[in-house]
């Protein structure tokens, strides 16, 4: 079935590109842009995007869960300071002085 009429991309092309990318790098994040690039094409009007995304989601090899989600046993909390040391703001430094 043709998914993108502008560039003549079929559902088989999308699945083949996903399979190829997953075989090349099992941890890669697969996006529509990467699929277009792998097929040597460029998105045109974008009218196909809902069907393109549905075709991607239907592919068994699309998703990769990050290691933190795979194990499920870790209690992980995202730091609220975005990795910066405490007192990184100028206003906080002046108040401390």
Show the helix and strand layout.
Blueprint: E1 2-4, E2 9-10, H1 11-24, H2 32-38, H3 49-58, H4 67-71, H5 90-96
Antiparallel strand pairs: 1-2
Overall geometry comes to extended
Order of helices and strands: EEHHHHH
Q: Overall pLDDT, averaged?
A: 77
Helix content: 40-55%
The count of DSSP E runs of length 2 or more, i.e. the number of strands, is 2
How would you classify the helix and strand content by structural class?
Answer: mainly alpha
Task: Report, as a whole number of angstroms, the end-to-end distance.
Answer: 68 Å
Number of helices: 5
Strand order of the largest sheet: 1-2
Biggest sheet features: 2 strands, antiparallel
Strand content: 5-15%
User: Mind telling me the C-alpha Rg?
Assistant: 21 Å
Spans with pLDDT under 50 lasting ≥5 residues? 68-76
What this model shows, in words?
A two-stranded antiparallel sheet has the order 1-2. The N and C termini lie far apart (68 Å). The model is unreliable at 68-76 (pLDDT under 50). By secondary structure, it is mostly helical. It is extended and about 60 Å long. It has a domain at 2-65. A hairpin with a 4-residue loop joins strand 1 and strand 2 (9-10). The protein contains five helices and two strands, in the order ββααααα.
């Amino acid at each position: 079935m043709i998914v993108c009429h502008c560039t003549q991309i079929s559902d088989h092309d999308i699945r083949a590109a996903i399979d190829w990318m997953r075989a090349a790098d099992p941890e890669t994040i697969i996006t529509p842009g990467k699929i277009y690039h792998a097929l040597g094409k460029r998105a045109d009007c974008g009218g196909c995007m809902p069907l393109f995304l549905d075709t991607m989601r239907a592919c068994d090899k699309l998703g990769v869960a990050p290691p933190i989600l795979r194990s499920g046993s870790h209690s992980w909390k995202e730091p609220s300071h975005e990795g910066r040391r405490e007192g990184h703001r100028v206003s906080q430094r002046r108040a401390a002085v």
